[in-house]
Design brief:
Growth Hormone, Chain: A; 2 domains; MFS_dom; disordered C terminus
Amino acid sequence: MRDRAFPAWAIWALGLTQITGYGTLYYSFPVLAPAIAREFALSEQWIFAALSASLLAGSLLAPTAGRWMDRFGAAWLMTIGSAAAALALVLCALAPGRATFVTALLAMELTSCFVLYGAAFAAIVQAGSPQAQRSITHLTLIAGFASTLFWPLTSALHAHLSWREVYGVFAALNLGLCMPVHWALLRMARRRSRLAVPAPEEVHSVAGPAANGGGTLAPRSRRTAFLLMLAGFAIEGFVLSALLMHMVPLMTALGLGAAGLFVSTLFGPAQVASRLVNMLFGGRLAQTHLATIAAVLLALGVAVLAATAPWLAGAVLFAVLFGLGSGLISIVGGTLPLELFGRDGYGARLGWVSAARQFTSALGPFAFAFLMSRTAVETSLWSVAVAGLLGLSAFVLIDMVKQRARREHRHPAQGNVIAESGADAG
């Protein structure tokens, strides 16, 4: 069989489109929101509420987008999605009033279903590489710089351009940079489908059952594991969004003052560091174990902050642990469904994972703000830490389901060997 490893140029190019996609469609918004609110005579809370509503709508579309990826190919949808994202950004830039702006914002978040991580992971898996998990890890490492690059880039552009002009520049990036890359990936996928058709015996020899579409779970265990997986990712999405959207004001509320901004800057490097460490040393680690480690780091980080505030060293440890957990959870969002269920129907499953995470991510900031308005900040943090433990429990249960399925698979095989030996003896 031909070498179907996802080429390095494609990983770097796809990583560049992920940086651009996340930067233009998501990370730029908090920087531009104050100017948008002033122009439309709205409060910033109202503007962020519109974003949350758009994220909720995107979560509803994600499962359908995943099914379309399985049917039409992720690279094809990413190509169309890049053009749609550029159009949505243009509509935002030209919006004459509140209603048209919210409609354009909704379009932005709907198009994100076709160009961000879920689609990129599916494109890698559909390319047929036996090292898909490693390619996904590489991609998340590159894309981890999206916030680091686009927060200052958006601020620098906005210092010289209006928010409408900034969105115009971002539309050009999606059309002129992302769309050609996705088109090249589409051509590569079509060429490989013509030139590389492995024989059945070759398929079963590559990297175990997860590489050929079967996954590691028995059919009876799949539904339970799938529901637990959705619950785990939904809860971790809630924990991450609840604190990330309130990071700087949270540090101030805990009495850290100006040092809180320094603490917040540690999150991004820690997130990238965890992905780098996993890329270098985590190749043999089961993705169920990696998901468990990520959940432990997130819950532990929040607990450390709740227990030590306003001690600066405790806040620093929180930012590092929380960043490490966030970096890993982004990886397992793509690799855990592949390990458990294989390639068949991967896009649809990833769509449901994206929907679960995006839905709770939209609710997290409001829920945490409500908790802080009704209770002490430390109490609110302990509540989030408990939620993190629930997410951890879901991943632990998945591992237990997987281990039980393995034992049940081995037991009847041993029984057949005994029976056959008895028949031969007779």
